[in-house]
Amino acid sequence: MFRFVNISCLFSVCFVLLLFFITQSARGVDYGAIRPGQTRSGEITIPSPNDSFTFYGNEGDCVIITMSVTSGDLGPKIVLYDPDGIKEEDQATLGESVQIADYRLLKTGMYTIICSDILQSQTGKYKLSLNKIPGNPLWWDDPDGGEIESGKTSGGQIAHVSSADCFRFTGTQGNTVVITMTNTSGELGPKIVLYDPDGIGEADDATLGESAQISDHQLLKTGTYTVVCSDLLDTTTGTYNLSLTKIPPSDLGLVAPLPNDGEDAAPILPTMEWDSVPGANSYDVYFGAEEPLIRLADNIKTTSFDTTATLYTDHTYLWYIVAHRGENDLKGPMYIFKTAKGTQPPSQPQGELTLAYVLTVPSIDPDGNPVTYTAEWESDTGDNITHQGLIPVRGKLVDIMEETDKLESGQTWTITVTPNDGVEDGPPSVESIRWQNLGGYMDINNDGIVDVADVVSLVKLLNGVIP
C-alpha cells in the first residue's frame, strides 16, 4: 500500500524546526557570573547573538565595564540592564575596545551585561572585564591589585586586553598623595584613575609614553581610596610598577587583615582580624560567599571575630567591617580569601535525646560530600544496638531504639551519633538519658498493654514519623 505525504505540511514542520534552532543559537551564551576584578573570555560564533554576564551591585556603586576584541571583525557593543530588565547604559564602537566608564548604578540587585556585535553581522572572540567601586579589587585568574602602602612600590601585569587592576589605600581628608604608574614591559600606555570612598573619580592621568602620575593631589574625603590601573587604549598588555606616597603617611586602620587579602589557602574556621580604627568604639562584620554579604556580628568591641560555621574547602569568601565612630561610620574595604584545598571530615552534629535521638544541627562536609550517620546505643547494663547508614529525610533525622525487649526502667542509655562523608568519620555527638518507669503512658499502639513499645509509638507521633 502506498502512503501519500503532504509535502506542504512536511516543509512547514522543517521550517519551524530550522527557525527554532536558529533562534536558539541567536540567543548567544549565558556565561553566568562575572566578579569584580575578573576578566572573562567570550566568543560570538554566529551573527546576531547576545552573550550575557551577571553581577550583583548596590545603588550608587561605580562600575567600569570593558569589552575588547581579541580576534575577528567584531564591533564590540555592551548593554547594561538593571535588576528589573530595564536598560541603564550602553556603549558600542567599530573599533577594538568599548567601555562603560565610571557609571553609577541606579538600583540594588543582580545586573546583566549583554555583549554583541554592533552590526549584528560579525563574529569573533573578546575579553570582558568588570571593576566595581567599592568592591573586592582582585580575582583568582587576575590576582594583581589589593592593598598598597605609602612609601612602597607594587608590581602588576595587565595580562588580558580590557583588564584593569585595582589597588586600595586608606586616606584622610587633606592628605597629599603622589601616585605613579610606570610601564616595565610590553606596549602599555599607563593610565591611572583615583576614586574616592564613594566611587567618584577625583584625579587621573594617562599617557602613551612610559609613565603616568597623579601628582600632589589633596584627598577630598576620609576613607578607602581606589587606584585603577589599565592600558590607555585597552588593547595591549604588559607589566608595570605602581608607587604611592602619602603625606603624612599615617593610616586610618582597616589594613593588615587576616586572612590576608587574596589568600588562597585559608583555614576552614578562620578568625577575621583587622587594625584598630582611631575613634571607633565598636565594629560590625559582614561575610559571605556572594554579594550581598550578611552581617555576622554587630557592635563587637574587639578587632577580631571567630567564625563558628565550618566553611567549604576550596571556596571563595568575601568580608568587610564597618567601624562605628559616633555619627561618622567608616566602611572598610572588601577583602577576599579562598579556603585551602584537600579533604576535611564533616562537622560535629548536634542532637537532643529525650525518648529518641533527634538531629537538631546536621553535619556539614567542607568538601560538599553527602553525609550519613551511624547511631550506636549502649546501656549501662551492657546492651548494644547499632543503626548504620542513617540519612535525614526532608531535613529531619529521628533515630528510635526500637528493640523494646532490651529496655528496662532505670537503665541509662548513651547514644553516639557519628557522621561520615564517604571518606572519613567526623566528630560524634554523644548524649545520655535515664529511662524511667512507664507510669502515665497510654496504650498508644493498642496492643492491650502499656510498655516500651508505646513509648516508641509516642516518639514517632511527636516527631512526625509514621508508625
What are the defining features of this structure?
single chain, 467 residues, mainly beta, Jelly Rolls, Immunoglobulin-like, six-stranded mixed sheet, 2 helices, 7% helix, elongated, disordered N terminus
Folded structure, characterized:
The model is unreliable at 1-25 (pLDDT under 50). The chain is mainly beta. 7% of the residues lie in helices and 46% in strands. It has 4 domains: 31-136, Jelly Rolls (Sandwich), CATH 2.60.120.380; 137-252, Jelly Rolls (Sandwich), CATH 2.60.120.380; 263-339, Immunoglobulin-like, CATH 2.60.40; 350-462, Immunoglobulin-like, CATH 2.60.40. The chain is elongated and about 95 Å long. It starts with 6 loop residues before the first helix and ends in a 5-residue tail after the last helix. Strands 19, 21, 22, 24, 25 and 26 form a 6-stranded mixed beta sheet that branches. A 5-stranded mixed beta sheet has the order 1-3-8-5-6, with no helix packed on it. A 5-stranded mixed beta sheet has the order 10-12-17-14-15, with no helix packed on it.
